[in-house]
Design brief:
The chain is mainly alpha-helical and 131 residues long. The chain contains 1 helix and no strands.
């Protein structure tokens, strides 16, 4: 009987130890789970903030790219116009040089004619003055 009483007491003690361990585990893991849930919530909030920031940066970047694209198109138009103007200026310069050569040729011919006429006039005057 005594042995049975000791066995019963041992089982009661074992049961109490199990209850204490369950209580300790549930309070330890319960706090740990709550801490993990809080940490998960903090991570979710941080993730939302980062997504919002990324979206904002992407929108700003898209706007800047559009402005740059517009500026590049304007520069391209100006460059194309500059090429056309440069071509026109070169054509005008060539025309001017050709005209200058023609004018010089005409001037040379005119001077020859004038000198010829002048010498003819001189000769005529000389003939008139010589008896």
């Amino acid at each position: 009987m005594r042995a049975m009483a000791l066995d019963v007491q041992s089982l009661i003690n074992e049961r109490e130890n199990i209850k204490i361990q369950e209580s300790l585990c549930s309070s330890y893991f319960g706090n740990s789970i709550k801490e993990m849930e809080n940490e998960v919530q903090i991570l979710k909030d941080g993730s939302r903030k980062m997504n919002s920031d990324i979206s904002s940066v992407a929108k700003d970047t898209a706007e800047k790219v559009e402005v740059l694209h517009s500026a590049i198109e304007k520069v391209q138009v100006i460059a194309d116009e500059w090429v056309k103007m440069n071509y026109t200026i070169n054509r005008i310069w060539s025309f001017t040089k050709e005209t200058e050569k023609r004018v010089e040729g005409l001037y040379s011919d005119l001077m020859k004619v004038c000198l010829f006429r002048l010498s003819s006039i001189k000769f005529s005057l000389y003939k008139m003055s010589v008896p």
